[in-house]
Amino acid sequence: MRSSLPLRSSILMDHVAKEWRGRWNALESLTMFCFCGTSVVGGYLVEAYGYRYCFFVTSVVWFVGLSVELVLVPIIRNERTLRKATTSHKLVMLA
């Protein structure tokens, strides 16, 4: 299930600035811990409410996560453009 983790981590680190890579790795470790910890929560939900409720809660959590990622995509694209414009502006000011 987590077989894509090395590839995803490599792609993530390619797109993260060097000074931010440590923070992103820490966040990635936190998500892996949450992934392992949710097994206990899922077991409790299945015992208390049944499988349907557990799948419903899982789909809501995944939908919220997907929504957040979709909102961040345009921001990341604009950030790269702004970074290039700011860098060229600084070079003009130094000259």
Automatic annotation (TrEMBL):
<keyword id="KW-1133">Transmembrane helix</keyword>
<protein>
    <recommendedName>
        <fullName>Major facilitator superfamily (MFS) profile domain-containing protein</fullName>
    </recommendedName>
</protein>
<keyword id="KW-0812">Transmembrane</keyword>
<keyword id="KW-0472">Membrane</keyword>
<feature type="transmembrane region" description="Helical">
    <location>
        <begin position="30"/>
        <end position="49"/>
    </location>
</feature>
<dbReference type="InterPro" id="IPR036259">
    <property type="entry name" value="MFS_trans_sf"/>
</dbReference>
<feature type="transmembrane region" description="Helical">
    <location>
        <begin position="55"/>
        <end position="76"/>
    </location>
</feature>
